[in-house]
Amino acid sequence: MNIEPQTPTSKNPPEHFAGDVWVDTIATPNEADQRMTVATVHFAPGARTAWHSHARGQYLRVTQGVARVGQRDGTVIEVHPGQTLYTPSGEDHWHAAAPDCFMEHIAMLEAGDDPATTTVWKEHITDDEYAGSAATDRADER
């Protein structure tokens, strides 16, 4: 048994996040056959990830504030403290804090067979996607 060393809080990179987002690592693999990574992620109001997917899916447990999570079809859902969201393997999504409050979640995911595919980062989301109006815009075009 060991008490894991504490790692300093780090700010997430602007190529993958818009706004201020910080991460505190909780657990990373200790053994060669382990895959699980767990972190607490803190979002300033309106801060968001870029589009991304995970090789083995991801669990997000919201602990404070309100999370907004978007899908490629334009659907945006809100996740509240105490709720856990699962995103399946390979599904494009983004997550963010609501515009009027800080949000914190615990992120849990397993590494892919190729660690480079654990999280595949894509383009930044638009303001319309964040607001959930992209789905309305698409419906208006039909």
Automatic annotation (TrEMBL):
<dbReference type="InterPro" id="IPR014710">
    <property type="entry name" value="RmlC-like_jellyroll"/>
</dbReference>
<dbReference type="InterPro" id="IPR047263">
    <property type="entry name" value="HNL-like_cupin"/>
</dbReference>
<dbReference type="Pfam" id="PF07883">
    <property type="entry name" value="Cupin_2"/>
</dbReference>
<dbReference type="InterPro" id="IPR013096">
    <property type="entry name" value="Cupin_2"/>
</dbReference>
<feature type="domain" description="Cupin type-2">
    <location>
        <begin position="40"/>
        <end position="97"/>
    </location>
</feature>
<dbReference type="InterPro" id="IPR011051">
    <property type="entry name" value="RmlC_Cupin_sf"/>
</dbReference>
<protein>
    <submittedName>
        <fullName>Cupin domain-containing protein</fullName>
    </submittedName>
</protein>
